[in-house]
């Protein structure tokens, strides 16, 4: 009887304990960490907005690598720019008080980002210059709370995004800092010492995760140091096992020299990576509307910006090949999103309001693009058995030849999203099908920069 009472008490205590779930804790090894399934939301959401904002937005010349090109590479254009516009002895640190952000309105940003049709955003919490957009305890007053705007930019934007939109909030964080003396000391020791990651980089990562709960953690800038120097696997094990975002957070592949396109939650492989074919691992195309810079440039020309037609093409190609598109904008030092970026964001939102069903929650089809007609890209929804053919060039002949899908007589239905009537089509047997495209005046087109056919019950 005594044993029965003890057993009953043990069972009662087990019932009162919180459930541990089925997941085995991840070990601090790449083999274990890479086995973690990517949270499903990331593949479903497809499209995000990158925001590069920092002290480089003050000179807003050349690129966000201004400090490096000026002081390390000593490029003539940057030296001349400083000589012509700033007094002798002016240092990069002197840009701090000029990063004023007086027009930064987090609610306004949130509304604009929502209008883009994107599903997540990634803000640069700290770039390679080391200046943090939150009041980090580890930044030695080199941050937006102590210098410049004297505001917690990360907190303000996170709050507005979560209160006004359904977008997921993410943060970019640079592992290294170009001119941090601790990092330079470790580098001179061939990374046998770890002063910088232990005192600066790792504490910052724990800090932003615990304070702001980002659901995307976009790591960058390894400084040619291996992941063992950064203790990346140790941090990621904590992130996946114990952090407040352990169930939903996604991470990229930039966690130390040699890890890119090899380890991490999803692959970026390189900036502006767009392979044009299906990959076996989830990937992201991080790219810029400004072809030459991630940060805002006052010296940019109109021709330097991608058109909305080019951006739609990037999105369609990327999603058809199984990737996500992370499209970058660069705000000004005073907190404005320049009107060229505002226009592109709202144009993309307008396009997605019509064609979003062919983008979000889709899967790659057996063929990513058409074998006969150029600039036709496919996406697929298996549960609904719906195939989407997104064509980027309007056929002047009135006929669109599709070489990949095989229509089935009296079963297959073809519609153009945004146009009410079913479209006529003719089977070409194994050679595909021909769809009759309605001859519409420009003002009656469903959208202006790419159109989608919805094909149900194709072979």
Automatic annotation (TrEMBL):
Pfam families from the UniProt entry: Alpha_L_fucos, Fucosidase_C
EC number(s) from the headed UniProt entry: 3.2.1.51
Catalytic activity: an alpha-L-fucoside + H2O = L-fucose + an alcohol; a neolactoside IV(2)-alpha-Fuc-nLc4Cer(d18:1(4E)) + H2O = a neolactoside nLc4Cer(d18:1(4E)) + L-fucose; a neolactoside IV(2)-alpha-Fuc-nLc4Cer(d18:0) + H2O = a neolactoside nLc4Cer(d18:0) + L-fucose
Residue span(s) of domain Glycoside hydrolase family 29 N-terminal: 23-357
Keyword Oxidoreductase set for record: no
N-terminal signal peptide: 1-23
Ranges annotated as spanning the membrane: none
InterPro entries linked to this entry: FUC_metazoa-typ, Fucosidase_C, GH, Glyco_hydro_29, Glyco_hydro_29_CS, Glyco_hydro_29_N, Glyco_hydro_b
Keyword Cell wall biogenesis/degradation among UniProt keywords: no
The protein's name in its UniProt record: Alpha-L-fucosidase
Organism: Gekko japonicus
Gene: FUCA2
């Amino acid at each position: 009887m005594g044993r029965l009472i003890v057993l009953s008490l043990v069972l009662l205590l087990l019932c009162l304990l919180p459930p541990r779930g089925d997941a085995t804790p991840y070990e601090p090894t790449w083999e274990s960490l890479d086995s973690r399934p990517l949270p499903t939301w990331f593949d479903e959401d497809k499209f995000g907005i990158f925001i590069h904002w920092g002290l480089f937005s003050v000179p807003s010349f050349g690129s966000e690598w201004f400090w490096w090109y000026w002081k390390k590479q000593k490029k003539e254009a940057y030296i001349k720019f400083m000589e012509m516009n700033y007094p002798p002895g002016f240092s990069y640190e002197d840009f701090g008080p000029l990063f004023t952000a007086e027009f930064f309105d987090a609610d306004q940003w949130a509304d604009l980002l929502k209008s883009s049709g994107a599903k997540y955003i990634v803000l640069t919490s700290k770039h390679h210059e080391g200046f943090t957009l939150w009041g980090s305890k580890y930044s030695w007053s080199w941050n937006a709370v102590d210098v410049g705007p004297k505001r917690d930019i990360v907190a303000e934007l996170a709050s507005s995004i979560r209160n006004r939109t359904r977008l997921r909030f993410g943060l970019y964080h640079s592992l290294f800092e170009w001119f941090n003396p601790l990092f330079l000391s470790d580098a001179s020791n061939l990374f046998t010492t770890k002063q910088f990651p232990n005192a600066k980089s790792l504490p910052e990562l724990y800090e932003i995760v615990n304070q702001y709960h980002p659901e995307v953690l976009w790591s960058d800038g390894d400084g040619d140091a291996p992941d063992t120097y950064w203790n990346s696997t140790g941090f990621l094990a904590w992130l996946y096992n114990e952090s407040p975002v352990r169930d939903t957070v996604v991470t990229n592949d930039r966690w130390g020299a040699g890890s890119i396109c090899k380890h991490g939650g999803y692959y970026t492989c390189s900036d502006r990576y767009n392979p044009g074919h299906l990959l076996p691992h989830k990937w992201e195309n991080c790219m810029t509307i400004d072809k030459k810079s991630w940060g805002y440039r006052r010296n940019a020309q109109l021709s330097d910006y991608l058109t909305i037609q080019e951006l739609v093409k990037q999105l369609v190609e990327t999603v058809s090949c199984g990737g996500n598109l992370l499209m970058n904008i660069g705000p000004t030092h005073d907190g404005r999103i320049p009107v060229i970026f505002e226009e592109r964001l709202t144009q993309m939102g307008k396009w997605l309001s019509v064609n979003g069903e062919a983008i979000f929650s889709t899967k790659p089809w057996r063929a990513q693009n058409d074998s006969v007609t150029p600039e036709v890209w496919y996406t697929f929804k298996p549960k609904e058995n719906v195939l989407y053919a997104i064509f980027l060039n309007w056929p002047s002949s009135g006929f669109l030849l599709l070489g990949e899908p095989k229509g089935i007589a009296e079963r297959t239905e073809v519609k153009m999203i945004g146009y009410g009537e079913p479209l006529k089509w003719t089977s070409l047997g194994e050679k595909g099908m021909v769809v009759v495209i309605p001859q519409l005046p420009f003002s009656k087109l469903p959208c202006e920069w790419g159109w989608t056919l919805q094909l149900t019950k194709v072979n």
